[in-house]
Amino acid sequence: MRGDDTPGGFCRSPLLPHVARAAAHYGEEPCIAGKNGTGAVFFTGCNLRCVFCQNVDISRGEGGRSVTVPELRDMLLRLSDQGVDSIDLVTGAHYIPAIAEALSGLTLGIPVVWNSSGYESVESLRLLEGLVQVYMPDFKYYDSAAARRYSAAADYPQVAAAAVREMFRQVGPVKLDEQGLMKSGVLIRHLILPGRTEDARDVIDFAADEFPRGSVLFSLMSQYTPMPGLERFPELQGRVTPEENRALIHYMQVRHLDGFWQENEAATSEMIPDWDLTGVPVISQCP
Model pTM? Predict the structure, then answer.
């Protein structure tokens, strides 16, 4: 068995969580970030290999610092004490056992948000049942060929569909408070890729057909920004056009999906945080 600090597997992650940043973050949907931000914990590593990833500096398992379960619990409590409107656990699927242990018995007084790629097993999600109030998964592709080409996961559509169904089973229909903050439920995200409007429509159809009207929220994101290293993918070197974005917003409305969408001006890299270990313990107690 590999040691706690030895990267392994496709996600290149150790057994204990590695965290690159834990601080108030304002770049999520209004029902998550609110006025006071969400306490975002960015984990390093990922079980996908999206060629367009904007967080590539940490998603390949680089950077961050190892934290123990007690340290992670303390980080969550400190964020809650800062007055954030939610706790946002970002890309933690490969650390679920440790995260579940940290959340167990913890009273934060604000919703815990599971912010994920959607590529996770039903069995692993069940470890989070009763510990997470809001699920915010991506649904990146409905097309297996695109999932294979861009994320090295041909089975992504089937895995993500099963994961989202499990998330809904756990937390049920969306509930908002009087300020419009999400207290529980599922918010499905889809990042529009340039030229892939048909796949986006299929994802919208999945959300509209799978769940009762008004029971989930949907976030249609046009913030796609070409990153370095896309020479092999010329179709991804452009941006989503205003026409593509407007057509998909209209289709989302036609399918009666409640939620959010972005204007094309959102397509910048300004919201990518600095991976500077803000909020992460300086000295880990890792044995």
Answer: 0.92
